[in-house]
Amino acid sequence: MRHPLEQFIYCPECGGKFAEHNGKSKKCLQCGFTYYFNPSAATVAIITNEKNELLVTRRAKDPCKDTLDLPGGFVDSFETGEEGVIREVKEETGLTVISAEYLFSLPNIYVYSGFEVHTLDLFYRCRVKSTENMAAQDDIEESMFIPIDKINIDDFGLTSVKRGLKMLIDNNFLNL
User: Fold this and answer.
1) Which pairs with CB-CB distance under 8 Å and at least 24 residues apart come from 1-10?
2) With 161 labelled, which of 17, 109, 118, 133 sits at a CA distance of 20 to 30 A?
3) How high does pLDDT run on average in the chain?
4) How far apart are CA 161 and CA 165, in angstroms?
């Protein structure tokens, strides 16, 4: 796997050429600006219902188009992880989150327009007001509840979601 800093050649301050500064940063040879590459924050929502089913979505766009996923997405600037997961669930499913409890995080690489976006995916157990008006919106093709004992991790496309689901299933966390 190539290091994410390999994607950065020119300084955003002056346009000069970057050189390796250390394993975590590059430094501009012209103006001295040092750039540290850090992951972007993203969220993943774990939503179950009273029938012991998990809310899953189907991706409408790449990466991993047509594979299963969980609601979530990138945290916006000036937004907390909790605000981000609440907003993303609303945008993708129309559901209103009434509580979001942080569970754990996993690193991921999200390839967008050929660019490797390194993310830190924040997993939240979310409770929703109601599932009556659930509808696929935004960048998902469909949303549905699947019985937890019928979940096939290989149907999910994103690496961190697969790893997170495996952890949750192995630790019996999804069962009510």
Assistant:
1) 1/109, 2/116, 4/37, 4/116, 4/118, 5/35, 5/37, 7/115, 7/116, 8/35, 8/37
2) 133
3) 93
4) 6
